[in-house]
Amino acid sequence: MTENSEYSPNTNQPAENPPGHREHIDRQLLHSEKMAAIGQLAAGVAHEINNPVGYVYSNLQSLGEYLSDLFRLTDAVESAASIEDLHQIRKSIDYDFLRGDLEDLLAESKEGIERVKTIIAAMKDFSHTEEEEFRYADLHAGIDTTLNLVNNELKYKANIVKAFGELPKIKCIISQLNQVTMNLLVNAAQAIEDFGTITISTWRDGDFVILEVEDTGPGIDATTLNRIFEPFFTTKPVGKGTGLGLSLSFNIIEKHRGEISATSTPGQGTTFRVRLPVHQPQEPADD
Amino acid sequence: MTRILLLDDETNILTALKRLLRKEDWQLDAFADAEDAISALQTHSYSVIVSDYKMPGMDGVTFLQFARQIQPDTIRMMLSGHGDRQSMITAINRAEIYRFLSKPWEDYEIQAAMRSAVDLYQVTIENRRLLDQIKRQNNLLRQREEELLRLEQANPGITRVRRDKDGSIIIDDEL
Which of A5, A195, B102, B174 is 20–30 Å from A223 (CA)? Predict the structure, then answer.
């Protein structure tokens, strides 16, 4: 890493940091926050994967039993003394049940594997680090990817209501926007005490698109609300939050020339609103 | 008939469990919702309960605590994909479970655990039945003893009837 010299007190450093230094630090922070978030999710994701793997693995074991029963019948075709014997075996292995259940067993197992595939794909989409370019992307697809990943955190805390409007593709770094969405969703779920509702709404507003995440948690009081975008500010217990999620979300949205804001009614819930331009200037984020 | 209650919000887990237990001579009642499982507990008596840990609404530990109040003798087990220490500890301390099984599982593990749970339930019930029987018999004995004592007090010597060789009662002239 050539940038290492910047941190060494012994080299003759100019008082000003070189251009691009801040951006580099920002990028590193962004990355470490993302990794922290993934770490927190890992336990949840493990649970989400263990369920389908659990029944698929068990179904395979049952399938083995079914097959050895079926082979008893097919092998007997050669050796059985009479057709009567075959009927007897067919009855004893519960052939009709096996036949009927095999289809279900395979369909359910396939569904399980597909669920694991979706989760892995979502994690891969999410952890994309190389993708730093602004491209036109579908915000709804990004939200769905993120929902797949955090579903386990959310489903025990809230009903998810999707109120998606018509959106054009917007020019953005979708993996970074996914990080913002994940942050807002996890925050919303953590805010809810027992069980509530999280509403994700999107709509178009001229040359902008709006994304809102609304929870039915206890709300945030005015003093706290003023500070939520500050780095390292957190109300969560030690170990639960880094205090960086919202401040990095703020940076990401700023980089996209958008706005992020929060409104809250104590006792009723909090709404985060992200406003993003559909297009970016030719030379994006180079200010 | 041995009745088993299975609870998991994931219905595919329930069918997988039913498959691996289908050759046992047990009635398997499967539920995807804890509330439904609780109403079943109020109408039927179960030998073994297997519950998931993490479910929307009521979690497995809370459910098993309810189950313990409704049917204290039923053997409780937990099947969880959430193999962290803390969930295991709460399940043991609060729900007093017999086994903590993790997802994914080996079928023979579940089969063996279920069979020994069913055995344990039957032993517990048999034990209770025998204990009841002893208590009832003890009560009967005590009542008889008290009656004898009362008679003896009212009419001293009445409980010590002497008989002849041919079984006829000897009446003492002195009395």
Answer: A195
To the nearest 10°, report the CA torsion of A24, A26, A30, A33. 120
Cis before A18? omega within 30:
no
Considering only CB atoms, which residues of chain A are within 8 Å of chain B?
A: 43, 46-59, 61-62, 97, 101, 104-105, 108, 111-112, 155-156, 195
Which of A96, A91, A97, A89 shows the shortest CA–CA distance to A71? A89
Kindly state whether B104 is in contact with chain A, defined as any CB-CB distance less than 8 angstroms. Answer: yes
Q: What is the pLDDT of residue A284?
A: 47
Q: Which residue of A has its CA nearest to B59?
A: A156
Question: What is residue A286's DSSP assignment?
Answer: -
Over residues A18-34, the pLDDT tens digits come to 667 777 777 677 666 66
Domain ranges of chain A: 51-121, 132-277
Asked if the Cβ–Cβ distance from B20 to A112 is below 8 Å, we say no
Map tokens 């009419």 to a residue: B155
* ipTM greater than 0.95: no
CATH architecture of B3-129: 3-Layer(aba) Sandwich (3.40)
Q: How far is CA A236 from the centre of its chain?
A: 21
CATH number of this structure's domain A132-277, picked from the four choices 2.130.10.10, 3.30.565.10, 3.30.420.40, 1.10.630.10: 3.30.565.10
pLDDT lower than 50: segments of chain A: 1-14, 284-287
Which 8-state DSSP code applies to residue B158?
Answer: T
* Alpha-carbon distance B116 to nearest alpha carbon in chain A (angstroms): 20
